[in-house]
Design brief:
Blueprint: E1 5-9, H1 13-24, E2 28-32, E3 44-47, H2 49-58, H3 61-67, E4 69-71, E5 73-78, E6 81-87, E7 98-102, H4 103-117, E8 120-122, E9 127-131, E10 134-137, E11 148-151, E12 169-177, E13 186-192, E14 196-204, E15 213-221, H5 225-230, H6 233-243, H7 248-251, E16 261-263, E17 268-269, E18 274-275, E19 278-280, E20 286-287, H8 295-312, H9 316-345, H10 350-363, H11 369-377, H12 384-388
Parallel strand pairs: 1-2, 1-11, 2-8, 5-13, 11-19
Antiparallel strand pairs: 3-7, 4-7, 5-6, 9-10, 12-15, 12-16, 13-14, 14-15, 17-20, 18-19
Helix pairs in contact: 1-4, 1-8, 2-8, 8-9
Bound molecules: flavin-adenine dinucleotide (FAD).
Length: about 400
């Protein structure tokens, strides 16, 4: 194919990864975002080995490893009982681990890679629709015509028009200075059944800063959000302390309700990720709760697959079909797994929590189960890199 003119709608993880990869292939790329100066929202995430593989292909792997915190283990206690214990090394002594990162750090390395590659970034454009290779902006203006529009507008994309009902539970998040006695190489969580959950994730540091940070999160239902905001902060802190006293040095850093951001989650998958002149990537195609820690990694894999398909196929229609084929099974598998696992960590069901603690947790220790669970968390079930034609050594 001749070099394509591509509009990327959305300057998030998926959009920036597409921009960096497609510029490497010689496409002309313009990234549009509603924010005047695009920036990340939210706290920390875990980059899984599959996502790190894509960042290596972009040329941003070393930069993000320098900023992030290696994660070797996911560990959760319900009372005294260990109900979550996944070790990445269960896949093999040399198997790669996860990386806890500040969203700002991930955004920065992707933004730097896209800009260094020569992508054009156009901020302050609120996209409302796309027709026939053109984007339509709020106020009625339209973009020039492109060979392809990539919809990377995230969970509320007006281009994918997925129904908008959020999951009943979301979470309060904060990025805090690393403090206290936590495992610096683990995501740690504490639960009361599945109705309460607190978590601490090491997320390394932001570019240009020395201080190491932790993402702290607290599960909260949408319907309880107003009551939480209206109640004194100290009452909530007492509740967290009684579940997990070690969080005290983190709680001290939270001085008002505004220091915590509420994130809502949704679970949806768009049936067809491609249409004429348009491909959907990342959350605009599929979104899930973050319990399996896959969303950003899925977005990176989508970008990698789309770039690979455009590079190897002889025309645009064939490339879009190939892109959907490369990603379909992995996405179906992980959307199903996320659907199954989410209520075990965020729901009012005492039965599901009991099954998690007394059936699933013991089963997860029988031979082969630890390696399988580690592969699930690492994003490797369904061999997504093999489907894209790129295998790890
Ligand atoms: C609290 C929380 C924790 C998470 N933890 C993890 C984790 O541990 N691991 C993991 O892999 N994933 C995690 N995820 C999921 C992950 O963050 C998302 O899957 C990922 O950010 C999706 O990337 P995206 O590029 O598709 O969308 P986004 O990153 O949301 O980017 C969308 C972009 O589009 C822009 N935009 C949106 N609408 C418009 C419009 N109308 N016009 C113009 N611009 C627009 C936005 O400004 C933004 O820049 C978590 C998510 C949440 C909420």
């Amino acid at each position: 194919m001749k070099p394509l003119d591509i509009a990327i709608a959305g300057c998030g993880v998926a959009g920036l990864a597409c921009a960096a990869l497609l510029r490497q292939q010689g496409a002309r790329v313009v990234v549009y975002d509603r924010l005047e100066t695009p920036r990340p929202l939210g706290s920390g995430i875990i980059l899984q080995p599959v996502g790190l593989h894509v960042l290596d292909a972009i040329g941003a792997g070393a930069a993000i490893r320098d900023l992030g915190a290696p994660i070797e283990r996911l560990y959760g206690l319900s009372g005294e009982r260990v109900v979550l214990d996944v070790r990445y090394k269960a896949r093999g002594r040399r198997a790669p681990c996860g990386l806890g990162v500040h969203r700002g750090a991930l955004f920065q390395v992707l933004y730097d890679a896209a800009l260094a590659g020569g992508a054009e970034i156009a901020g302050g454009r609120d996209i409302v629709a796309a027709h026939d290779g053109r984007l339509e902006f709020a106020g009625g203006a339209r973009s020039a015509r492109f060979d392809l529009v990539i919809d990377a507008l995230g969970v509320r994309s007006p281009l994918s028009r997925l129904p908008q009902a959020p999951l009943p539970f979301g979470a309060l998040w904060a990025s805090l200075d690393w403090a206290g006695k936590f495992d610096p190489a683990a995501l740690e969580q504490r639960y009361v059944a599945a109705r309460k959950m607190a978590g601490v994730l090491p997320i390394g540091r932001l570019k240009g800063e020395g201080r190491q940070q932790a993402a702290f999160f607290w599960s909260l239902k949408h319907v309880d959000r107003q009551a939480w905001s209206a109640a004194p902060l100290d009452a909530w802190k007492d509740e967290v302390r009684s579940l997990w006293p070690a969080t005290e040095p983190l709680l001290k850093q939270i001085r008002s309700h505004d220091d915590l951001v509420f994130a809502s989650y949704a679970h949806r998958t768009m049936r067809e990720p491609v249409s004429r002149h348009c491909a959907h990537v990342g959350d605009s195609w599929h979104c899930a709760s973050p319990q399996l820690g896959q969303g950003a990694n899925m977005a990176l894999l989508d970008a990698f697959a789309l770039a690979r398909a455009l590079e190897t196929q002889s025309n645009l229609d064939a490339a879009l079909g190939e892109y959907a084929r490369m990603r379909l099974w992995h996405i179906r598998l992980y959307q199903a797994a996320s659907w199954m696992f989410t209520p075990a960590y965020q729901s009012d069901s005492a039965t599901i929590a009991w099954l998690r603690d007394f059936i699933v947790a013991p089963l997860s220790r029988v031979p082969l189960a630890p390696a399988l669970l580690a592969a699930l968390v690492a994003g490797e079930i369904g061999a997504p890199l093999g489907a894209i034609g790129s295998v790890t050594s």
